[in-house]
Amino acid sequence: MTYLGLAAVFVALCVPLMLVAVVWRRPGRRWWLATGLTLASLVVLTAVFDSVMIAADLFRFDEDRLVGWFVGLAPVEDFAWPVAAVLVVPAVVLLLAGDERKPR
């Protein structure tokens, strides 16, 4: 299995959780903005720090299992993990959060 195939399976398993959370809780604009900013931040941090770690030779990838697209030194497959995290973590928080519409 390629790194992209593994990443696609993992992200595909995370998408239904996000869909259930969004349909059930109907988050507002502020939630979407926070989630989008989180995704953007994690993608930038992944590009920077993966490139630094690869340049420092802390780890290597099997070249035969990569698609061949890179952002800096980071292979595109590495960006699936922050995407999965942004799908799962906000969805779980949304599902576990109490109903904000209740009077206090």
Number of helices: 3
Largest sheet: 2 strands, antiparallel
Q: Could you estimate the helical fraction of the residues in percent?
A: 55-70%
Strand content: under 5%
Form type: elongated
Give Rg in angstroms: 17 Å
Describe the structure.
The protein is mostly helical and 104 residues long. Helices cover 64% and strands 4% of the residues. It contains 3 helices and 2 strands; from the N terminus they run H-H-E-E-H. It has helices spanning 3-25, 29-55, 80-96, and strands at residues 70-71, 74-75. The chain has a two-stranded antiparallel sheet with strand order 1-2. A hairpin with a 2-residue loop joins strand 1 (70-71) and strand 2 (74-75). The mean pLDDT is 89. InterPro entries: Lycopene_cyclase_dom (IPR017825). Its main location: membrane.
Brief write-up:
The chain contains 3 helices and 2 strands; from the N terminus they run ααββα. The protein has 104 residues and is mostly helical.
Characteristics of this structure?
104 residues, mainly alpha, two-stranded antiparallel sheet, 3 helices, 4% strand, transmembrane
SSE topology sketch:
Layout: H1 3-25, H2 29-55, E1 70-71, E2 74-75, H3 80-96
Antiparallel strand pairs: 1-2
Helix pairs in contact: 1-3, 2-3
